[in-house]
Amino acid sequence: MNRFISFYLFPLILLSGLLFSASAANDIAVPVTDELLRTLGLDREYHKCISVADGDTLTLEGLGTVRFVGVDTPEKNHPQLPVQFMSKEAGAFTGKICLGKKIRLEYDPYDKDKRGNYGRVLGYVYLKDGTFLQEELIKNGYAIAYTKYPLDEGRRAQFLAWQQEAKNRGIGLWKDDGFPEVLWILKQKQPLLQVTKVSKENWKIAFGNWIFEPVQYSDIENNLKQLYSSIYEFSPRELQAKLTEMQYKEKLSTGNYPSNIFVIGMAHKKWGIIHKNYALPRVLPEQLGEKLKHLSGWINEYNEEELRKVLLKNQYRLIPERSINSVEQKKIAKTFLTIYEVRATGEDIIPWDQAGNYIGKYMSVEGKIARTHNSGKACFLNFHNNWTRYFSLVIFDNAFHRFPEKPEEFYLNEFVRVKGKIKKFRGRPEIVLNSPNQIEIIDNP
Fold first, then answer.
1. Domain spans, the chain
2. Which residues are marked as active site?
3. Domain 3-169 CATH class label
């Protein structure tokens, strides 16, 4: 299997949280016979699990990559989303149960070709001891029931029942109604998108000093979704260009209005709303505008003590002072918007986001390692969350012994200068590191 497909599961990252597309599903159930499976190159035999990508995706020897039907775990490898709350725990849970074990698949009668658009086998996962993996993931709070597309009705009802059981128990993703995820996001310093009502009809959205206004009430969620995805999709240089294209304007100050509201992205396409030291977790996209409208009205109508009572009555949670005081919206935005400039002089030294302009040349490249992963066969040092677009370094396993132990930890969040020939792989630039002499940790510029 190709090194990047086996590690990052390239098809998985093309669409966030995609289980299978509408074109890969039937409107009516088609019996899953052994004859049908043979024509599709599939079976119900046991196959060894040779790798686990994340909580809902693994690879079986002889079958390939398998995406679990009917469940969705938080994203860990998506290039246009941050690592999400409990994604590592979900992946570890699946790995502990499955890695090295014999597994067989059952298939849903609504799946058209049992593989979806990106070649991944879509299946229900069973171990030899009878363990049904989807059940374990949902019951233990590592996954939500994902029922957006056609699904066997019996399983659909069972998955939703198991999900309600996990909610009632308040475990995993459902602990404290999702409030731990809010605290985790604040600790990770993920983007806070500022939303402010400026008149009876108009709102404005801000990220750092970049402001978009006026925004109609009905357009708030769509605009926030576009902004949030752009923050993680583009380098700072291209993000600034994208914001300009989206008609954001850079201003010196967004103002410190008492009515300011912040929105954070949460797992499974949910939103969180924050006002001062109060937070409302897990807001559905279709409910966001209404929730913001209500909150803005309460802010204007009530004094501080009355507002506190109203917020608590409406499921808002009090954020500890130590968590909220460490959050500076503009400082967080600056990390996503600041364009890296090299300090050294010389024609052969370039910033990381310009590496794609020098394919085939030997160059020195500077930047900060923002994301890493060690698959065991290769270690990837990425200069941007979106590793499918931007510059990365690759250390293959035959060179591991030459580098510091756990290079994925040693170099993470470090500013480095790296030397080598820039190559193009799957549309994005990379340098293969064969020696630690090629990479130097430099002072924070």
1. 3-169, 179-336, 349-441
2. 67, 75, 120
3. mainly beta
